[in-house]
């Protein structure tokens, strides 16, 4: 699975490392892990480092995933540091998720994403 989900206690965030070729199943499994961390640790911020992603699924699976993220993780503040290779698809997901009321932003760097989460 090209995604690892952990908790960064120093930043009080759930941290997803996303890299390589990411499938719809990978996205689903990492979301399930994020939900568990959120419930067990009561952390309301999520940082996704996607700077090393090579590819994401096609449009329809991304649309479905984005809609589910908004429903399931809509109370979290979510920051994503994007890869140039998946930037267009990440922007599409951002639109789907934000149009459904969730607080998600896409950034060009890890530092900018983490700074926004700290605000």
Rg from alpha-carbon coordinates:
13 Å
Percentage of β-strand residues: 25-35%
Taking strands numbered 1, 2, ... along the chain, how are they ordered across the largest sheet?
1-2-3-4-5
What is the helix/strand order? EEHEHEHEH
Explain this structure.
With 119 residues, the protein is α/β, with parallel strands linked by helices. 45% of the residues lie in helices and 30% in strands. It has a 5-stranded mixed β-sheet with strand order 1-2-3-4-5, with helices on both faces. Helix 1 packs parallel to helix 2 and helix 2 crosses helix 3. The N and C termini lie far apart (31 Å). The relative contact order is 0.18.
How are the elements arranged and paired?
Layout: E1 3-8, E2 13-21, H1 24-41, E3 45-55, H2 59-72, E4 77-81, H3 87-99, E5 103-107, H4 110-118
Parallel strand pairs: 2-3, 3-4, 4-5
Antiparallel strand pairs: 1-2
Concise overview:
This protein is of the alpha/beta class. It is built from 4 helices and 5 strands; from the N terminus they run ββαβαβαβα.
Overview features:
single chain; alpha/beta; 5-stranded mixed sheet; 5 strands; globular
């Amino acid at each position: 699975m090209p995604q690892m989900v952990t908790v960064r206690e120093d930043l009080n965030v759930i941290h997803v490392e996303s890299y390589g070729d990411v499938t719809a199943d990978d996205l689903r499994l990492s979301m399930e892990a994020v939900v568990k961390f959120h419930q067990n640790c009561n952390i309301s911020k999520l940082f996704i480092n996607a700077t090393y992603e090579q590819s994401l699924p096609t449009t329809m699976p991304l649309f479905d995933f984005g809609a589910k993220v908004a429903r399931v993780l809509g109370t979290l503040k979510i920051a994503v540091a994007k890869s140039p290779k998946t930037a267009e698809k990440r922007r599409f997901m951002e639109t789907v998720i934000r149009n459904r009321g969730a607080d998600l932003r896409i950034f060009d760097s890890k530092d900018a994403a983490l700074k926004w989460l700290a605000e």
